[in-house]
Amino acid sequence: MVSSKKFCYLILIEISGPTRTREELIPYIIEIIEECDNEDEFLIKLSDQLIHLKEKIGGKEYAQILVAPLEILSSMEESLVREKAIEALICLAEDQDQGKKAFI
């Protein structure tokens, strides 16, 4: 069963489409991450969920857009946030074609 928050999130992304998700949602997520007063639990969930945006932003071709927020998360003080972000970065890297691994 999908929670109501997750359902609203999915609807928002579907309505926005890949271009607006890339151009508006990802920069907004970066702004949220850079705020100093975020709860660790929120950042852990965000780190865990960012990888799932890959298909919503246009697929592998645009996956490098997810690197910026994940890099920020991978430098956070909380070790679980860093671990989740690094796992997501590794998944992105493994999913890329050999010639497109330059974003690592």
Tell me, briefly, the overall form: globular
Report the strand count: 0
Order of helices and strands: HHHH
Low-pLDDT regions: none
Largest sheet: none
**Helical amount among residues, as a percent range?**
55-70%
Based on helices, strands and strand pairing, what is the structural class?
mainly alpha
Supply the number of structural domains.
Answer: 1
Alpha carbon gyration radius: 13 Å
In what range is the share of β-strand residues? under 5%
Number of helices: 4
Walkthrough of the structure:
With 104 residues, the chain is mainly alpha-helical. It has one domain (4-103). The chain has four helices and no strands. The protein has helices spanning 4-34, 40-49, 67-73, 79-95. The chain is globular. The mean pLDDT is 84.
Summary keywords:
mainly alpha; 104 residues; 62% helix
Task: Give a brief outline of the structure.
The chain is mainly alpha-helical. It has helices spanning 4-34, 40-49, 67-73, 79-95.
Architecture blueprint of SSEs:
Blueprint: H1 4-34, H2 40-49, H3 67-73, H4 79-95
